[in-house]
TrEMBL record:
It comes from the Eukaryota. Residues 25-303 form the Xylose isomerase-like TIM barrel domain. It comes from Penicillium brasilianum. This is Xylose isomerase-like TIM barrel domain-containing protein.
Length: 333
């Protein structure tokens, strides 16, 4: 039986400026979610619209979440911190502000996507040292804020769970662990936007082997939370002629921005083996922590006022289908 608490990313409920964060909070609670990931751009827009500082806005959102019985899982995404070529003192100053906002929100996690800048410093000693400093900011006072590090399929240095586990060991801080997203492992090992089949050669075996290693080797206590999303198959395959193509941008990044529906939304082109990854990460490891639905669907950019409510219904329907698959169906890979 799957008993994990379920959260949803605030941008996964709507991406149009009219989709206000306080409305998303109330809709998420009404739909039955236990938690929400607060995306900084949503918080910033809410604060600005209401004439508040971002710190005051965070306090207001915290109160609204409390009133609606909704936990705040994370503040996200604190991007391109480690190994960046900008002055470290500037990055630490920004980190201090974000961590303070997370504390106001009572968010236990600051979600940090692995560095993806093309000119980033790839020196592991520097990356480790800078992440330790970030962790120490999070543990410098209470409430403690943990750093949930997310390997992304287009990240510069740490694009796999294996290298990220090694980084967790190197950083060696109690409040440093992983945020794992199905989209990233699948687009790293299995899903190919350029192939007519939508998959890499021998994709099933490669993914299966990685998942088996994960169950054996990934320290369960360092899985801070898990994110779930699917991806649309490109038909025809992605190319430079595609309207979404951006010169110099990783194709997986482009894919992520436009075509990540909820798991099992096959009517929208979803085709990835999300259940097989979730089975390894959640069922086979015995993971009992938070699961969050984080999608980036271009349909969420519509101004339609019902997008938020519809997104919540889509998300819950997706989770029910995935839970059923995990609880009653045998693995397909």
């Amino acid at each position: 039986m799957i008993t994990n608490q379920l959260a949803i990313g605030s941008l996964s409920l709507g991406q149009h400026p009219s989709h206000a964060l306080d409305h998303k909070v109330r809709v998420a609670a009404q739909a039955g979610f236990a938690g929400i990931e607060i995306v900084f751009s949503d918080l910033e827009r809410f604060s600005r619209t209401n004439g508040l500082s971002v710190f005051e806005g965070a306090s207001r959102i915290r109160a609204i979440c409390d009133d609606n019985g909704l936990s705040i899982l994370s503040l996200a995404p604190f991007e391109n911190y480690e190994g960046d070529r900008s002055p470290l003192i500037d990055r630490l100053q920004k980190a201090t502000q974000w961590i303070e906002i997370a504390r106001i929100l009572h968010a236990p996690f600051l979600q940090v996507p692995a560095q993806y800048g093309v000119d980033a410093i790839d020196d592991e000693d520097i990356i480790t040292r800078e992440l330790r400093q970030l962790c120490d900011l999070g543990s410098s006072k209470r409430p403690l804020v943990s750093i949930a590090y997310e390997p992304m399929s287009w990240s510069t240095c740490h694009s796999t769970w294996e290298s990220s586990v090694k980084l967790v060991e190197s950083v060696s801080r109690e409040n440093f662990g992983l945020c794992l997203d199905t989209f990233h492992i699948i687009t790293k090992l299995w899903a190919d936007p350029f192939a007519p089949s939508g998959t890499y050669p021998d994709a099933d075996n490669i993914l299966r082997d990685s998942l088996r290693r994960f169950v054996r080797e990934c320290p369960l206590e360092k899985i801070f939370f898990v994110q779930l999303s699917d991806g649309e198959r490109f038909d025809p395959p992605f190319s430079k002629d595609h309207p979404w193509y951006v010169e110099g941008e990783a194709p997986q990044f482009t894919w992520s921005k436009h075509a990540r529906p909820f798991p099992y939304e096959t009517e929208l082109g979803a085709y990835m083996p999300v259940a097989e990854v979730a089975r390894a990460w959640i069922v086979e490891t015995g993971y009992k922590g938070w699961v969050s639905l984080e999608i980036f669907d271009r349909r969420m950019r519509d101004e339609d006022s019902k997008v938020v409510e519809y997104a919540a219904l889509r998300a819950m329907d997706s989770w029910k289908k995935l839970k059923h698959e995990l609880e009653v169906t045998q693995p397909k890979i």
